[in-house]
UniProtKB/TrEMBL annotation:
Listed Gene3D superfamilies: MFS general substrate transporter like domains
TM spans (from-to): 12-31, 43-61, 73-92, 319-336, 348-373, 393-418, 424-444, 456-476, 548-566
Name of the protein this chain belongs to: Major facilitator superfamily associated domain-containing protein
Keywords, in A-Z order: Membrane, Transmembrane, Transmembrane helix
Annotated family: Belongs to the major facilitator superfamily. MFSD6 family.
Region of interest (Disordered), ranges: 203-222
Subcellular location as annotated: Membrane
Membrane protein topology class: Multi-pass membrane protein
Length: 608
């Protein structure tokens, strides 16, 4: 085993704690959003907007750090902001409503009207929620008579004595559907039939209007159930304004079971009470993402500089950060499943406990880290223009953007996909371990791997890895298959990061290290992620997870083929242009004079 480089021990500890903190919280953030009641459409646009919001941060702070050289002070300030902002996400108020799967629904139909009753419509909101436009199936109808019904007619009160709790599932009745114009439709019903209807628009609960007139204390003691009048609905593509039921017993009503059809929309409209949750969460998350991106670009520049100063291996140092992610992410998932340290509605508190502890250790380590980075003396606005004018670096940024679109869709929606497959939080955390542990031996000798394979061929393998990975995800039904599929992250992310970072370091002037690393980071993790999340999220709503995964697999294979073809063509053209005719030895009387020879071609140190 190689001797430990003592000059890089503190760097190893810094990367271990920082990436361990960042990795364990990033995996669960989107799941936490859904736990708070934020809808899939809102998850899509938030994750699409976050990269744009964080786009400006890394390049500007990277240029300032290159100009001033105060890497330690800038890093510590950004670290404090990132820590407090991420922990603040735990205390965002929830607006989660009761889902259709665990909310009992029933139809109460009398001779005057019909109402859809939702057993719980208050949830975490302070008032009843509107019922969203949905399709409902009515079945298992029965005749129900109360113990005593009081009827008021023209000022007179008449008591009707019925059998207590009387229910008759065999009683026949008919439904009267009243259209806006035209003749009412009579629908015979024997209780065993199934009727499907749909609301044209969201419906406010009638219970809310009634309760406003009641005493506030009495309101608190009442059940949280709400009733929604069955008005303005569709039945067999025809529109109706009212529904009533008529039976042989005039003082009884029909009660039916109701089931919500489809999963495209939620049962109750939480938009009115989710606005505070949505905007508070977005504000904290956007700032937290920005400072996290700044920290990554700064620490990447520090790591690359220290590695070259002390003859280290960049991939080996990054390996310690990845090992921390593989360790602390499943630990966080296990703590969430075990409900260790949870209280009230804060079910994801253990994730933030682990994150905060590791960030505090990172902060202390930063004070002791010997940071030395070359300071540039040129105008801050000139270095980015100079970097972009570098042709090969511009191509690298474009490729990283394309790869970032694949990564953006995957990192945003794959954990929600696994949760839909009934994966535990421990398994979701273990996905990072499955993706990192196979990468460890390759990252330990990443310098040799990059030199042997070449930067561009490793980037091509990233496209191939995404092709296989998306195809595998589209066919699995058991979430544990992700253990095999995620091993491909060796190519799609880990070796890709090493290859892109070292190639950018080689192509950029040494005084622009932080700026070059920030541009690579922004291209992949900001611009690419934004495009992948926005486009993928809209395709997901329309086509579903599996079809989008299959389409992404085809796109990744196509990109790999195009990139390989262009790379070989460019290399061939370069070889043709640089090929010079071999010098011919001068002959004198048919003999080659002493000292005249043809020099051998010198091979390049690295493959590209």
């Amino acid at each position: 085993m190689a001797n430990v480089n003592k000059n890089l021990v503190m760097l190893k500890l810094l990367l271990f704690t920082f990436y361990g903190a960042l990795g364990c919280v990033m995996v669960f953030l989107n799941i936490h959003m859904r736990f708070l009641g934020i809808s899939m459409q809102e998850v899509t646009w938030i994750n699409s907007a976050l990269p744009l919001f964080a786009l400006i941060g890394p390049p500007i702070v990277g240029m300032v750090a290159d100009k001033l050289g105060h890497y330690r002070a800038i890093t510590i300030i950004c670290m404090l902001f990132a820590m407090f902002l991420h922990v603040g996400l735990l205390f965002v108020p929830s607006c989660k409503s009761t889902s259709a799967e665990d909310t009992p629904l029933s139809l109460h139909c009398s001779s005057n009207k019909a109402t859809l009753e939702v057993e719980s419509c208050l949830s975490t909101c302070s008032r009843p929620l509107p019922l969203m436009s949905n399709t409902f199936q009515v079945d298992n109808c029965r005749l129900v008579c109360e113990e005593q019904v009081t009827i008021r007619e023209a000022g007179n009160e008449t008591n009707f004595e019925g059998e207590a709790g009387k229910e008759d599932t065999s009683a026949q009745f008919f439904m009267l559907l009243q259209p806006a114009h035209g003749t009412p439709q009579y629908l015979p019903f024997d209780g065993e039939q199934q009727v499907t209807f749909r609301f044209n628009e969201s419906v406010m609960p009638e219970e809310e209007m009634r309760r406003e007139k009641e005493d506030e204390e009495e309101h608190k003691e009442e059940d949280a159930s709400c009733r929604y009048s069955l008005q303005n609905f569709l039945y067999e593509s025809a529109s109706y304004t009212n529904l009533s039921c008529h039976t042989r017993e005039p003082h009884c009503q029909i009660v039916c079971n109701v089931t919500k059809q489809g999963n495209d929309t939620q049962l109750l409209d939480t938009s009115s009470c989710c606005r505070v949750t949505l905007w508070v969460y977005f504000s904290l998350r956007a700032l937290a993402e920005m400072f996290s991106s700044i920290l990554v670009s700064l620490l990447e520049a520090v790591a690359l500089t220290m590695v070259h100063q002390h003859n280290g291996d960049y991939g080996r140092e990054k390996m310690f950060g990845l090992l921390a992610v593989a360790l602390f992410t499943p630990l966080s998932g296990f703590l969430v499943d075990s409900k260790v340290g949870t209280f009230g509605i804060y079910s994801y508190a253990p994730v933030f406990y682990v994150f905060g502890t590791l960030m505090l250790i990172t902060l202390v380590t930063t004070f002791a880290l010997p940071i030395q980075v070359k300071i540039q003396r040129r105008s801050l606005l000139k270095n980015m223009a100079q970097l972009v004018r570098t042709a090969e670096l511009s191509v690298l940024l474009l490729i990283m953007t394309i790869l970032g679109t694949f990564w953006g869709y995957l990192i945003t929606f794959v954990y929600l996909y696994l949760e839909d497959l009934k994966a535990s939080k421990l398994l979701i955390g273990l996905t990072t371990s499955f993706s990192i542990l196979p990468s460890v031996p390759f990252l330990y000798r990443s310098g040799v791997v990059v030199k042997y394979c070449g930067h561009h061929y490793l980037i091509m393998l990233a496209f191939v890895g995404y092709c296989v990975r998306f195809a595998g995800l589209s066919y699995i039904t058991n979430p544990w298959w992700v253990a095999l599929i995620d091993t491909l992250e060796l190519f799609t992310l880990n070796l890709l990061n090493v290859s892109a970072a070292t190639l950018a370091y080689k192509l950029a002037p040494k005084t622009f290290v932080a700026t070059a690393q920030a541009l690579v980071w922004v291209s992949h993790y900001n611009i690419g992620r934004c495009i992948g999340t926005f486009v993928g999220g809209h395709l997901l709503v329309k086509y579903g997870h599996r079809r989008v995964f299959q389409g992404a697999s085809v796109m990744a294979a196509t990109c790999a083929a195009i990139y390989l073809s262009l790379h070989q063509l460019i290399n061939y053209c370069k070889a043709q242009r640089s090929a010079a005719p071999k010098p011919q030895p001068v002959r004198e009387n048919g003999n080659i004079p002493n000292g005249r020879y043809t020099p051998l071609a010198v091979a390049e140190d690295e493959r590209f």
